[in-house]
Structure formats: C-alpha cells, structure tokens
Amino acid sequence: MKQPLIKVYGEEYLRKISFDWLESILRICEKQNDDLCKESLKKIKCPSLIIQGNKDPMVLIEHASYLKDHIVGSK
C-alpha cells in the first residue's frame, strides 16, 4: 500500500505528510471530544454520493454504510 505513494512523494516527504495528517486528525478529535465527524454529518444538506472501493485497504465498507445512513438523502 505504501510503495506507490513512495514512488509519487518519496519516502521522506511521505513520512512527513503522514505524520502531519495524523497530528491534524488527533487535534480535531481532541477539540471535538473524540468525534471526528459524526456530529457534522447531520449538517450536510447537499446531494451526496457515497463511493467505496471493494479493495480499499484503508477504509472499511462499514464507513460508507455509516455515511449513507447518516447523511440525509445520500446515495
């Protein structure tokens, strides 16, 4: 999973952006009492299409199902 990203970004830069991404997610969760986005989902009012790849190694299918169930009018 990591090798294609290393080819694009290089190992050192990939390490940096991965660390920065993780730090950002942790700050958001801390600020929102460990809620990354659940409360925000009910605020989405525009048409939304939820797409999930069958072979996505990072995001489980349950995430797409949860989004579909909690964003009004999503498909």
Automatic annotation (TrEMBL):
One of its GO terms (molecular function) is serine hydrolase activity. The keyword Hydrolase applies. Keywords: Hydrolase. This is Biphenyl hydrolase-like (Serine hydrolase, breast epithelial mucin-associated antigen). The keyword Hydrolase applies. It comes from Apis cerana.
